[in-house]
Amino acid sequence: MNNTLPALATALLMPLADSAMAEDTLRFGVDVPTAPMEYRLPNGELTGFDIDLGNALCDHLSLECEWIVQEWSGIIPGLLSRKYDAIMSSMTINESRRETVLFSDPYIKPYSAWFGGVDLELDKVDSETLAGRTIGVQRGTLQDSYVTDTFGSVADINRYSTTSDMIMDIKTGRVDLIFLDHPAGVATLLNDSDEYRVVGELVNEPVKYFGEGFGIAFRQRDEALADKFNLALSELRQDGTYEAIYDQYFPR
Predict the structure, then answer these.
(1) Which domain holds residue 133?
(2) Which are the contacts of 164, defined by CB distance < 8 A and separation ≥ 6?
C-alpha cells in the first residue's frame, strides 16, 4: 500500500509536468521551399525571414521555438491534428482559410510574380498571351487558385509539390512560365543568373486570391495564443527588431 500511493501520485503529476514543458515550447509547422522566406543552409540548418522572425517572436515571449518541417499540402491538417501549435510558413490570410484556422495580424505582404526566360517573347500576362502556354505553380497555393480560375481554360497548368521541382522544370524547359511569390522567384532565378526575368506586372490583387498578407495560423480556439503573438509582433516593430530582420532578407 505504501508503495502504491507514491506511484499513483507520480503518475498523476506526469501530465502536469508535460503540460508545463509544452507551455515553454512553441512548435511551428513550416514548409521549406526556397529562399528567402524558409530554406535550409548547406549544413541543414533552417533559416529565412519566417524562421528568424518566428525565433525573435518566441524569444520576446520567453518561449523555445521548435520548427517541424511539413510539406505544404499537409500543413493545415498537421496543425488541426496537433502535430504543432502554429504555422509560420508564408501562409496568405484569406477567407477560405479563415474557415479552418485563426490568423495573426499580417506580418508581411509580398507580391506574386511571373518568371520566364529572357528570350521569352512575352511582355504582358493575360488570357490572350497565355493561350497555349504551359504554366508552373505549386499545388495548393494561392497562385494555384488564381491561375486555375483565371487562365485554366486557355493554358496548360503543371502543378508541383515543391517550389524546387517547379524551378527545375523551368530550367529544363518543361514550362514556359512559373508563378510564385516574388521574393522566392528573385532568390532562386534572378540573384545568380541572367537567364530569367520578371514577366509583366507584379500581382497582389484581387484580395479574393492574394489575401491580406502572410499571417501565423493557429487553431481557432487558440485566441489567447494568437493575441500574445500579435502583441509581440507589434512590439518587435516598435523596437526595431522587425526592421532589422526585414532588411537582412529584403535590402532596400
Answers:
(1) 112-210
(2) 33, 34
